[in-house]
Amino acid sequence: MKKMLGELLKAILEGLVSSSYIICLTVAMISIILYVCGCKKAGKYVSISIVTYILIQALKGALS
Predict the structure, then answer these.
(1) If 0-12 CB within 10 Å is exposed, 13-18 middle and 19+ buried, where does residue 52 land?
(2) Taking each helix axis from N to C terminus, what angle separates 2-36 and 44-63, rounded to the nearest 10 degrees?
(3) CB 21 within 8 Å of CB 56
(4) Rounded distance, CA 36 to CA 8, Å?
(5) What is the pTM of this model?
(6) 2 HSE (CA, 13 A, CB side)
(7) How many Å apart are CA 52 and CA 24, to the nearest integer?
């Protein structure tokens, strides 16, 4: 049971890592568009998205 749960968690994390690029890119692009349109609070989400992507890729390295 414990081994099966570990394998399930690893599969979920691998799926998250593989789709993280498009998710973080989409969040960053939407944030840039909102920032240009005048929503100054959206500017911080660009850097948060980039840092999140880097952390997820580091997690990928730890899983390998």
Answers:
(1) middle
(2) 160
(3) no
(4) 41
(5) 0.76
(6) 0
(7) 8
CA 28 to chain centre: 11
DSSP code for 45: H
Residue 31, CA distances (Å) to 15, 16, 28, 46, 51 in order: 24, 21, 5, 6, 14
CB 57, CB 20: distance < 8 Å: yes
For residue 17, what pLDDT is reported? 87
At a CB cut-off of 8 Å and minimum separation 6, what does 53 contact? Answer: 20, 21, 24
Number of CB atoms found within 10 A of residue 44's CB: 11
Write the pLDDT tens digit of every residue in 21-43. 999 999 999 999 999 999 999 98
